[in-house]
Amino acid sequence: MKPKRSLTHLIEHTERIYNALEYGVRIGNISRAARENGLTRNQLNYYRRDIKDNRIRQSHGGSRSPSTFTTEQYELLVATVVAMVNVRPNLTMREIAQEINSDQNSIFYKKVNKSRICSIFKELKWNYHSPTYKQENKYKIENLLKLFYFNTIIYNTDWKKIYFLDECSFSSRGFLLELRRSKAVGPIGEPVYVTNSTSISETYNGFFTISLDDCLYKIRDKTNNTEDFFQYVRELLESGFCKPGSLLVMDNAPIHGGIEALNALFELFNQYSVQLIFLPSYSPELNPIERFFGYIKNHFYRERNSHGSFLDEIIDTIDNSLIKNKELFIGFYRQSLNFWSEKKRNQYQRKR
């Protein structure tokens, strides 16, 4: 077994080879240079090819083997990959390789494979992440102006006078299938059956309006339309839930009607001295009621009583877990709106 050479010895050996090679090229006699330095001609010729051929690359294992591309081609390939990823960062490595290979004007004389793209990713220290998708139209000037208008109104209004309205749908199929336990006890080799009286095809739709400390809702087992929405708004205003001089915020969903319906809607709110404004497009994060809906669904997953009906569980979650806990509503408002006003953030800070 050959003894391992030290790093210093390898460096000295490499320097001796390159010095001998430089001397051999200068005198025009590689064989003589090899003999005078105690080396073989083949050793010098190997390193001579290494210098001449710019496709030779150092591999991860320490060996030296010819690459598919010249230095210029490899640099162009890396630049091409970077440009493609900057435009479409959700491309897979296979898709990147396929698009490069499909280019009829490609200068690469050999097909690019997935492994090559993977090695480029490693060289660039890139990896795949869970992306955050952003809506392009959200940042157009028209929507930014709406955001500024909405921001100004919210900033100058007491949270106690702000109400949020939206529609939400609850489907038992999504809830109950995920709530079913994947294991059940039974004899080995025999199937186990679990009976359940709850239907997995129940769907309920509801309109909800929240304030800083309360909620008014209407749930039904039918699909809502514009007429149902107007009926709910009338009941909302007639009940006095929204006080005169208050502000009601909702999104501009199709169910809220077209131009004529909107004009009628504004007239209805004016009769009760309630101001109506719409959320900027693609901005659900500004609506505390979205957090309200999220709490209902998350609480349902955690605390659901399997003996109750699907509708009873939803109502129980709203009445007993939400409406009785006023701090939750303040939290929904604070999480969505507190970045606009330090004064209001301090005013509605959670009590410790």
UniProtKB/TrEMBL annotation:
GO terms for molecular function: nucleic acid binding. Residues 162-305 form the Tc1-like transposase DDE domain. Pfam families: DDE_3. It comes from the Eukaryota. Transmembrane segments: none annotated. InterPro entries: RNaseH-like_sf, RNaseH_sf, Tc1-like_DDE_dom. This is Tc1-like transposase DDE domain-containing protein.
